[in-house]
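Data deposition worksheet. Section B asks for the primary sequence of the deposited chain exactly as it was used as input, without tags or linkers unless they were present during the calculation. Section C holds the resulting structure in token form. Section D is free text for depositor observations; keep each observation to a single sentence. Incomplete worksheets are returned to the depositor.
Section A, Depositor: J.P.
Section B:
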Amino acid sequence: MLELIKNTYLTNRFFWSFGSFVLLFCLSFPFSFLFPIAQTLLILGIIITLLDIVLLFNKNTQIQCERKLPKLLSLGDANKISLTIENNANLSLKAIIIEELPVQFQKRDFEIIQDLAGGANPTIQYNLTPVVRGEYAFGYTNIFLATIIGFVQRRVQGSTPTIVPVYPSIIQMKEMQLKALSRLSYQEGIKKVRRLGHSYEFEQIKNYVRGDDYRSINWKASSRKGILMVNQYEDERAQQVYSIIDKSRNMKMPFNGMSLMDYAVNTSLAISNIILKKHDYAGLITFADKIGTVIQADKKSTQLNKILTALYKEKSGQLEADYELLYYAARKLITRRSLLLLYTNFESRYSLERVLPILRKVSKFHLLVVVIFENTEIKDFVNQTVTDTEGIYFQTVARKFLNKKEQMVQILKQYGIQSILTKPEDLSLNTINKYLGLKSRGLI
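Section C:
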């Protein structure tokens, strides 16, 4: 009995119906002929309500629900969640599904309406996009069932509470791998890199396929086979590449719900995977006011998992970054010349010039690539149409800010430091393109 009371909910249809009965009783005072009608309707309403309760709480009305979650969720990606609902009754029901989502999503209006035919077994899918790393606690799946009468709802709880970790984007990592390692390189976003000469080790002669460099055609082999053949060269291997993440407070700036540091975390995982697939050594260093994680560059089979676990645990700091620690790491922790991908952000020319002497020292010993983020919100504001003087003034100031970002890139170029100026959402593509471009030119 207690369970019946606990899981019984009256609907709006019930209150509207019985509210109209009350109104009829009120009107029966001046109009006495309405009184028996109101009595009859009230008794009929009570009978229908009791019938609705009997239909819903009948032992033959059994509903089962199972939630299917991936073992881990990918940061910043649309993760697919599946709900399988089984209606074992012969009764058609209307279901309102309310998921107890993790608090990180802050969704209080999540609702799915589904018609359940007798004996039906539908699968419902929805997407969730986490923007913060950590553990996400899913609660129960609450299903509110109603018959065609619709006076009463019965709550059924399914899908036991589960905790799922949100890791750096493995989905993005796999997408970038597919794009970067495709021989044909037709994938959108990854640039076809032009090789400057062939300072690479000869690997084999193979059949020509669309996308191969026509300058590599082996005419002698082609004449013997009667089809086009090309020389294939092997890239230089065993080069050290470090992802260095600035996790100070200037990387906490959010874009599309994700901080710049989380964009850098996703990209570090994706580029590390590409580095290992290219038979180079991948490493990771994080710093702020102190040196954080240090993973020496290696290409062991466990290296990617080690980097993934370290990135999952990283947290941004509250203080400014100490770039002297970066110089210390470049000289003491990295033993030979390497490619350093530094993910940081400078919002003013002064902030860059303050650390430029250290960056120049680092670039003497390593190939340094500084990643700077575009402020996409300011860029969108600049592209808006304005009609008043105040709007023109603000747009002028915004354009000056964007020009300063481009000036920073020119300053770095002037001192022989490689750089990437990118939108946060394009960070992975642009970083991988830069790595492949530097590798094709034999700079690493």
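Section D:
The longest helix spans residues 389-414.
The CA atoms of residues 216 and 230 lie 5 Å apart.
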